[in-house]
Write a structure and sequence with these properties.
Blueprint lengths: L5 E8 L3 H12 L4 E4 L9 H5 L3 E3 L4 H5 L6 H12 L7 H15 L2 H7 L28 E3 L3 H19 L2 E4 L2 E9 L2 E10 L14 E14 L8 H7 L12 E2 L8 H8 L4 E2 L4 E9 L9 E5 L5 E4 L15 H8 L6 E7 H7 L1 E2 L6 H4 L3 H9 L5 H9 L3 E4 L2 H10 L8 H13 L9 H9 L3 H7 L14 E13 L2 E2 L6 E3 L5 E7 L21 H17 L1
Parallel strand pairs: 1-2, 1-8, 2-5, 8-20, 9-17
Antiparallel strand pairs: 3-4, 6-7, 7-8, 10-18, 11-12, 11-17, 12-15, 13-14, 14-17, 16-17, 19-20
Helix pairs in contact: 1-7, 1-19, 4-5
């Protein structure tokens, strides 16, 4: 059926975090808002709901309490050294990076605290770098975990949307898939698309694409906040750059299937310029979810720095490609090996202290704001419950009491036929010999000991240095790791108000973009690499900018 045209001051396409923030801001400014998404309402909050809730702050009270000295100057040095902006198209991404850093060092925390968002007191250290002061990586810990993880970040903006809906100033339309942006005399004046059949699919699970009608929405301003392409492996492979080698034949999905990039062509047809599509952020510590929600569902291990990292043949990865140091550099190196997987070799003691799993559903203590469960799971002996479930049920985990048995099981594992058992043995024995002194020529051992000077690492994130074969630290554990798709770092080019730009560099009247659809701001605020904790923050900042500007 064809429904009668709807109208609103602001139309928001996509109800992930950026879309919720944009809709809430526009509604708070007194504008009428329509919020549409192709999924059932069970998916309100999009990818952000599934996230670990990491947020990037600069010189926060949490950092200072942990003895971390941070500054806007240091964070700017890290960001621009990480991003490596080198294109004419990076004009607006550079401007967005500067503005976002000021936000992260300024009002961002207070703005969230005012909305009831709290933070875990121990600050994490992601993307540790290891190249030099001007190279990639965070010089200091900046990864702040939200109390409540991803759902805790989503909650205040979802509540604002629901309140506006109850007040009659905002309309939420699930199962509305935009297929065209309407352009009238050079101005984007709304959208048309398909009404999809009702679906009772739970959050994250695939839903029907049966079309039962169409729709038209007229709007004074339209905001595209539809996410990236991580759930569409064909698009990921098509955008894969030569500098990262050949795309993997086998990848896991770190996002639901609805992250399909369908609004890219729709936006392009309306005149929007998409830039930096070859910049992307995928993880190399992916494991198959033993209890999947969406197709090819993978979970990322958030590793501490102690595990030994081997490629598919058993060769140790080069300096400084240690766990948690350089995601993109490790991805690029592993794509030169000719294989789609690699290995962690570790001990139970390391797993207990250093293995965290990304995702709200993998951290029930933090997600549920359960202090008693948190103390029991994070400080007690043994892995957390979700990590133990992967040790028991995960297809990628091998647990053995001695080295020879571990190597035998690794070689018998699918993909293990590429291993050189003698090389694996030599790498483990050589690493263990370096543990007999408080000093070492092994760069990873030296970095490990250095990291433990940070109170947060020593307290909950980094195991005391030990031999992998130490019986007291055992059993030995091997984990096969896979490439896990996640984020698009490029997208619709926008100015600092979130206005979508055309091929001539001029703003397209009536069209805005936010979140991952805009490369988290400007068409690629991260450049080539992310410092982590910056994706949710990019959605918050770009959604706020676009929502306020569209309301004006």
């Amino acid at each position: 059926m064809t429904t009668r045209p709807l109208s609103a001051d602001v139309l928001v396409i996509g109800w992930g975090l950026a879309g919720l923030v944009a809709a809430a801001e526009a509604s708070a400014a007194g504008r009428s808002v329509v919020l549409v998404d192709q999924e059932p309402r069970s998916n309100l909050g999009g990818q952000a709901w599934w996230s670990f809730g990491g947020l990037f702050f600069v010189d926060s009270p949490e950092q200072r309490r942990m003895g971390v000295k941070d500054s806007l100057e240091l964070a700017t040095q890290d960001w621009f050294g990480n991003a490596d902006f080198d294109r004419e198209e990076d004009r607006w991404p550079r401007a967005w990076a500067t503005a976002y850093l000021q936000f992260a060092a300024g009002e961002k925390r207070a703005w969230l605290r005012k909305r009831g968002v709290g933070f875990f007191p121990v600050v994490g250290w992601a993307e540790r770098g290891g190249y030099g002061a001007l190279g990639p990586g965070n010089s200091v810990p900046r990864f702040h975990i939200t109390w409540g993880t991803g759902p805790g970040v989503v909650a205040p903006f979802e509540a604002a949307v629901r309140a506006a809906e109850d007040a009659g100033t905002l309309t939420v339309l699930p199962r509305h898939r935009v297929t065209n942006l309407v352009v009238t005399d050079g101005v984007v004046t709304g959208a048309t698309g398909d009404v999809l059949a009702h679906s009772d699919a739970d959050r994250g699970r695939p839903s029907s694409r049966e079309v039962v009608g169409d729709f038209e929405i007229r709007a004074g301003a339209t905001i595209v906040s539809s996410g990236g392409i991580g759930g569409n492996h064909d698009l990921v492979r098509a955008a894969w750059p030569d500098r990262l080698g050949t795309p993997p034949a086998h990848m896991l999905s770190g996002v639901p299937a609805y992250v399909d990039g369908s609004m890219q062509d729709v936006s392009r047809r309306a005149g929007a310029r998409l830039i930096n599509g070859d910049r992307m952020w995928h993880y190399v510590e992916g494991i198959q979810n033993w209890d999947p929600v969406w197709p090819m569902h993978g979970i990322r291990i958030l590793p501490g720095p102690s595990s030994l990292w081997l490629d598919a043949t058993g060769k140790r990865l080069p300096v400084p490609l240690f766990p948690g140091f350089d995601t993109l550099g490790t991805l690029r190196y592993l794509r030169t090996t000719g294989h789609d997987h690699s290995w962690f070799v570790t001990s139970r003691q390391i797993v207990e202290k250093e293995f965290a799993l990304s995702g709200s559903e993998q951290n029930p203590d933090l997600t549920g704001k359960d202090v008693r469960l948190l103390l029991a799971s994070r400080l007690a002996k043994g892995p957390t419950g979700p990590v133990q479930s992967f040790l028991d049920e995960g297809a990628d985990f091998i647990v053995e009491d001695d080295l020879e048995s571990l190597i035998a099981q690794m070689t018998a594992h699918p993909g293990g036929e590429y291993l050189d058992p003698e090389r694996v043995r030599r790498e483990i024995v050589a690493r263990d010999l370096e543990m007999d002194n408080d000093f070492s020529k092994d760069a990873q051992v030296g970095m490990l000991r250095s990291m433990r000077a940070y109170r947060g690492d020593r307290l909950i994130r980094t195991a005391a240095p030990h031999r992998l074969q130490d019986p007291a630290a055992g059993p030995l554990i091997a984990v096969q790791l896979h490439v896990l798709t996640r984020k698009s770092l490029g997208g619709i080019e926008t100015d600092l108000d979130g206005r979508a730009l055309g091929a001539d560099g001029e703003a397209i009247p009536g069209l805005y973009a936010a979140g991952e659809a805009s490369g988290f701001g400007g068409g690629g605020v991260h450049g080539y690499r992310a410092l982590e904790g910056t994706f949710l923050g990019g959605c918050l900042f770009s959604g706020r900018q676009a929502g306020r500007a569209a309301a004006r």
